[in-house]
Amino acid sequence: MGASFATHMLLLLWFFTATFCLSFFKAEPHVSCNEKEKQALLTLKRGLTDPGNLLSSWSPDQEDCCRWERVRCDNKTGRVTELHLSSPFDVDGPWLYYKKRLGGLRYLILTHLDLSYANFYGLIPHQLGNISGLCYLDLGGYNSHHLYADNLRWISQLSSIQYLGLSSVDLHKEVDWLQIMRPIPNCLKNISAMATSDDEGHELEYEKNLKYVKIIDLSSNNLSGSIPDEISVLLELRFLNLSQNHLTGKIPEKIGNMKELESVDLSHNHLSGEIPPSMSNLTFINYLDLSYNNLSGKIPSSTQLQSFDALSYTGNPQLCGDPLPKKCTVEEKPLNENTNRQNGRPF
User: Fold this and answer.
1) What are the angstrom distances between the C-alpha of 295 and each of 88, 130, 154, 240, 285?
2) Considering the entire predicted model, what is its pTM?
């Protein structure tokens, strides 16, 4: 009898322990998306052409839109926060592309919107600036400049943006480079100290709601003109890609102030002049491509700049010094300020 009592007690103890553990480790109930956001997504789908049926789960019959493909929601509130609508990289496969305006987006409070690599064409809608909570926006892709922008002032409304992808977007109608770069400092830590007399009003305008920008990809954007000196105030920038454009002029002298830079690609442009000595200050840089420009003079001596192979500098016939096989002659070495003054040459 004693053994039987002990057995019953053990079973009872096991039952209460198991019940307690199940209660303790019970997952929090799943929060479904609200009906308004579900209808907004269905409105968005009606503006898409989906030959591969990639959005088959986006259906009125599927009650919880948080479980739909390419949709991410906040686990606590059930609000839709992310849309991943990029097309597959397999060009032979089914693509998702757009047949009219992206209706429904204005009803969503998104932080992440990926529309990259889609057959999206026409003018970028300025209404994207109304999604002010966006931290990530990617409109880039290999669409042969079918997508274009007449101006990018709407970017100034994206006060939380951390990633902005505009690769292959045609920006040639954006004639003022400063219109592109001035909105971006809206995401900076501090810009007021870099204001100039001509631009102070613009700088102060974007000093509000300053955040951080870490990545800029404006490659293959059909951009012309020079790289604005204001880019050097992007002190938190880590990745800068301005390749495959028609940029002229010099690399900004103060680019070395951007000490967080890890990757710089300015290749396939028409940049001229010498490589700024300040680039030697980029101690975190692990990728550099200045190839196929019109750069000249000696590559500044530094552990960082000489750590890259010659491919990073190739296509600049007037460039010399390590790691290029072409060695610098006296004539090709940059003249210092005293020599310029003695010879009466401008500097």
Assistant:
1) 38, 41, 34, 18, 20
2) 0.62
Q: Could you say which DSSP state residue 128 is in?
A: G
Rounded to an integer, what distance in angstroms lies between the CA atom of residue 221 and that of residue 217?
9
* Cα separation, 297 vs 301, whole angstroms: 12
Taking CB atoms within 8 Å and a gap of at least 24, the contacts of 3-11 are none
Q: Total domain count for the chain?
A: 3
Last residue of a domain, one of 205, 226, 242: 242
The CATH number for 56's domain is 3.80.10.10
- Using 50 as the pLDDT threshold, list the residues of the chain that sit under it: 1-27, 90-91, 93-94, 175, 178-179, 182-211, 333-347
Residue 6's pLDDT is 41
> β-pairing, 80-84 with 71-73?
antiparallel
Identity at 151, one-letter amino acid code: N
| pLDDT at position 52 | 76
Do residues 243 and 222 touch, judged by C-beta distance below 8 A? no
Under DSSP, the state recorded for 119 is: B
Same domain, 80 and 145: no
In the chain, where does DSSP find H-type helix?
2-24, 35-46, 177-181, 200-205, 337-343
User: Is residue 345 domain-resident?
Assistant: no
Give the pLDDT score at 342: 40
Which residue among 120, 153, 186 closes a domain? Answer: 120
How do residues 311-334 score in pLDDT, each as one tens digit?
999 999 999 999 999 999 865 544
Q: Tell me, what's the pLDDT at 36?
A: 92
Give the domain range for residue 263: 249-335
In the chain the first and final C-alpha atoms are separated, in Å, by 105
